[in-house]
Structures
1.
Amino acid sequence: ANLAKDILNSYSGSSSLVKSAYLTLLTGKILELCELEEKEKLNHNIIDSIFDYCHNNFHNNITQHDVANALHISESHLSHIFSIKMKINFRSYINILRTNKACRLILQTDKSIVDISDECGFSCIRSFNRAFVRNVGMTPTQYRKNFTDKNFTPFWDDRFFIG
């Protein structure tokens, strides 16, 4: 909570969209680093395996069915893990991973938004834009303009991003 306040205070002159983008990126990092409460060793190993599989494959067109099959668990068990233990659904989690990767590519490359969308695993530009706005609070084009036009130096480093 203090880190979020410090970040927002550091950019107090920024628009609410920019602050929202910072908080979204912070949320992605927290999600990436969170340790789930271990009740059973088996569940902990399954959760680690789910994270590993998702982090290694989010750029592909993966589904909950694909992850369940790859890890030899039922889709309902996988769904239960996401909804009860992680408090987020599978598709939202994958879209957060993809959006975090897209944020990095937007700031660090000159690739087109369409190419970034493809590289991050979105099936179409419309889905990419919807997920990006939902997770960052602005369109990918606005994000690039807001941060690159001002010689923006992000407060994070590459350790905070996936892939």
Note: The chain has nine helices and no strands.
2.
Amino acid sequence: MKVLKIINICLILAIIFVLSSFFYAHAYDLKGHKLNTDYVLTFVPYFEFTDLTIEHFNNSVNSWNNAAGKRLMSISGERHYTTGYWKDDDKHYIYKEVRTDIDYVGRTKYFYSAWNSKILKSADILINSRYSFANSQREDRYDTWSVFIHEAGHAAGLAHTNLDDFNVVMKEGIKKIFLRRNLHSDDISGIKYLY
């Protein structure tokens, strides 16, 4: 009788555990790819970005690297002069272009490895200067850091979260005057899961 009672208690606890993990599922979503950890994906910024913007790009990739516990991405000291976002050329560019055909303030394009469609070989990020940007919180501008850290999260393999909390970096959409520069626990859980 005592053994049966213990088995029943264990069974009830197991059911509670399974149900609680079902209802408290993670909110992050994955893109279905990840970076090749044999090398660091190094983004080369467009030459018109200011030194402060480059510093913000560095802060963004370092946030993701620290959360992952490994160096996944970096920002090159070089600059590029290429236009025509995007190019499948095995380079990792950050573009700054006016794109009226794209309704997003930022966009990431991925290129997959020929030998493994789940591993990226390169990625290009667009900062769409059709919109007004600033390196600070301004009522009439988008914060470049907030846009870039979100796009770098896509490059690392994260999709948009389904959380309603607008403080999550991987929440879809960004608003003017709003700073979203620090990774949320959901962003950190997602990158830790991947790497």
Note: The two ends are 47 Å apart (CA to CA).
3.
Amino acid sequence: LVTPSQSSIPVLCTGNLVAGGSGKTPAALALMALIRGAGLSQNPCFLTRGYGGHERGPLLVDIKNHDAATVGDEPLLLARAAPAI
């Protein structure tokens, strides 16, 4: 079981029970574009578990120094739009 916790900042979650192919990453990118376009957050970022990568985290994804083998392919894609942890 997961112990619930309260965040001190607003959080939008795009996760669901489907492992892949349901459009979570495109939805997250679209939400980020809306958030940035409307100026709803000063420092929006993505938080992802980095499926497929072997690097232990949390860490800030650096598209110049990380690859899909280290952090996963989706965090690299997300990091092109906003900081991804």
Note: The chain has a mean pLDDT of 89.
